[in-house]
Amino acid sequence: MKKLSFSVLFLVLLTFLPTAHASAQKIGVMFSESSEKYAKTTHPSGSFTSPNTGRVQTVYPKVDYSSTLDKELKAYHMYKQMGYDVEKVSESMLSDVNALTKFDAVVFPYTVMMNHQQRESLKAYIRAGGGAVFAFQAARNESAHFPQPGKPDVSPLIFHADSWIFEWDNLTEVFQSRFIDDVKLQNATVTAGNSTHPIVANAQAELGRKLAMTDTSYNWVEIIKPWQNKNNNIQPVLFFSKYDATDKSATMSADTYGAAHAIQYGKGRVVQIGYKIMDYIHVEADDNWEDHTKGLAFSDKKGNEDAKAFMKASLNWVKAPNQSNNKRQYNLSLYTDGLQAYVSPRGFVYRSTATVKNNGNVPARGTLKVEILNSSGKVVGTSHQRYLPGLAADATTNNADKRDVSKHHEKFEIYLKGLPAGVYTARTSFTEGRLDQKAVGFKFKTMAEVKTFHYAGGNTHARFSAVPMFRDVSQSGGAYYDIKNLHALGVVTGYNATTFAPTKTITRTQAATMVLRALGVSPSSNANLNVSDLQRGQYGYDVLATAAQYGIVSPQNGRINANAPMTRGDMAQALVNGFKLVGPTTRNFTDVPVTHQHYKAIQTLAALDITTGYQDSSFRPEQPVNRQNFSQFVNRTLYNQAK
C-alpha cells in the first residue's frame, strides 16, 4: 500500500514539474496597457467619414468588456504552471523588434490595441523566425487613435485602413487572410474536425480524446477566410462545428470557417484564434485579478482542459525550430490597353484603361497614377489618379465579395489643351502606401509602365511606340527587370541616352540620387552639408545635403567623398535609413562584427531578405557596388516594404 501511494505521488509530481523542453526557451506574454484600459471604456455610437475615400461608416456603441488584464494574467500563470520560462512583454518592448528577439514566442491574449510601429516591429520579428499566438482580437484597433471620453470609438476601423482587405493594417500580410465579419453564435461548439495538423495531434494526444469546446451563451466570434493563393501557408486547425443560432445566417455555415489557423510567415510561425479561448480556461494563482475572478473559467464555457491543451500545443508549434521560409512576395502587374491619343472638340486627349493586379502573396494598397511627360521629363496637363484601399492576395473569386478583389480596372482620359507637336511619355505607376501617410519612407512608387507617343500636330492621331531598353542591359541578365522597372519609375535615367553601364561602379552621389528619386524626394537647395570637400553650388551638393538629412549618406572624417564608390556597407545604411526599414539583428556575417558602424543596417537587410550575403557567410561591407547591383537592391527594397 505504501509503495502504491509513493508511485501515485511520483506520477503526480511528474505531471506538474516543469519539463526540460518547456523551460529551455523564453516565452513572452503581452501585457498591453492600452488594451487593458480599452476593455473598460464605454462610448456612444456615431459615424466616421474616411479622409481617404470619403466613405461614411457607422460606428457602433462600445460597451464595457470583461477584463483584458485577467486574460493576460491567465496566460502568464498558465504557461508558468506548465513549466515555461515566462516574462511579461510591455508596450515599449513591442515597439522594438530587437527587444522581441529574446523570446522564442510571444502570446497575445486579447491584445486588440496596437499602433503602426508596434505592428511593424511584430511583423519583422515573425518574418525573421519569431513565433506568436494571437488569442482573439489581435491588433484590430489603432491605439494611436484611442477613443476619447464621450466620443464614438473609431479605433476598430484601424482609422485609415478603409478596407476589410487590410483589417489588421500593416500586420495584415502576416495573417494571409481576408477578414469576413464579427458574427454571433449561440451554443457553439469548436472542434478540430478532420484536421491532422501537429497542433491538433499533440493536443488530442495529451487529452487522450478529441478536442471540443462549447460556449452555451450567444457570443461574438471572428470570421476570417484564408486567401486562395498557392504561395500562402495557412490552414484551419479548429472549426466552428455546430451552433444553434447566428445573427449572420447568410455568412455562417457549420464547419466552413476556421476557428483557429496555423500560419507560416517568412521564417516564423503564427497561430490565430478567432474565439474567446481564454474564457474557457481556469487558472488558480494569487494575483491582482481585475474582475476578482481569481482565474476562473466563465460559467457558460465548457472545455477548460481542451483549451489549455490547445494553447500549449500551439505555443510548442510556433516556438519550434523552423528551417523553411515562406517568403514574402510582393508582385503587381500593371499595364494599359486601348490607348488613344488625338484631337477632340475639347482639345488633345489621351485615353486608355489601366489595370493593376496583385499576383503576390501579400496585399497591396496605394495610388494608381497616369501622367504625361514632355521630352524634358516635365509633367504636362493634369494627371489622373485613383486611390485603391486594398488589392487582395487572392487569385480567385472564392471570397466574401464573390468577385476578384485582387484586380482593378481604371478607364481614364487626360485632356491636354493646346499640346504642341512632339514626343511624349505616358507613365502609369502605382505608389504603395496608405493615402494619409506623408512621411518619407512610408509611401513610394513600386511599379510603372511607360509608353511613348509621337504627336505631329494638327488633327492627326498620335503614334504609340514602346520605350526602348538600354542596349547594354541583357534580358538574360539577373538585373534586367530591376533596371527596367526603375527606368520606368524614373529612378534611373541611364549613363547616357542608350546605355546603362551596368558593371560600372556607382558613386555616392549617383547612389544618393537614386534613393532620393525612389523615395520621391527632390534635392533641396536649402539643405546644408558641413564638409570640407564639397561646397554649395558644386555638382552634387544639393543631392548629398538632402540625402544626409535623411541619413542616406553620412560624412566620413569631415568629408562627403561625393565621387567615391558607394560601398555595400554604405548602401545598407542608405536603404535602411531612407526607407525606414525594420528588422532584428539575428544574422551572423563573418566580416561584420557588432562593432561595425553599419552592423544594424546590414542585419536589417538580411532579416528582410533584401540581401543574403556571399556563400562564405561574408557580406564584404567595404566592397564597392556597381550600378546593376545597386539597382537590384533598390528594387528589392521597394518590393520588400509595404507599410
From TrEMBL:
CDD domains attached here? A4_beta-galactosidase_middle_domain (cd03143)
**InterPro entries reported for this sequence:** Cell_Envelope_Struct_Comp (IPR051465), Class_I_gatase-like (IPR029062), SLH_dom (IPR001119), ThuA-like (IPR029010)
Q: Where is the SLH domain?
A: 466-529, 585-643
Q: Which UniProt keywords apply?
A: Signal
Signal among keywords? yes
Query: Which residues constitute the signal peptide according to the record?
Result: 1-22
Work out whether the entry's keyword set contains Methyltransferase.
no
Superkingdom is Bacteria
Gene3D superfamilies, sorted: 3.40.50.880
Name the PROSITE patterns on file: SLH
Q: What is this protein called?
A: S-layer homology domain-containing protein
**What is the species listed in this Swiss-Prot or TrEMBL entry?**
Metalysinibacillus jejuensis
What does the record give as the organism's lineage? Bacteria, Bacillati, Bacillota, Bacilli, Bacillales
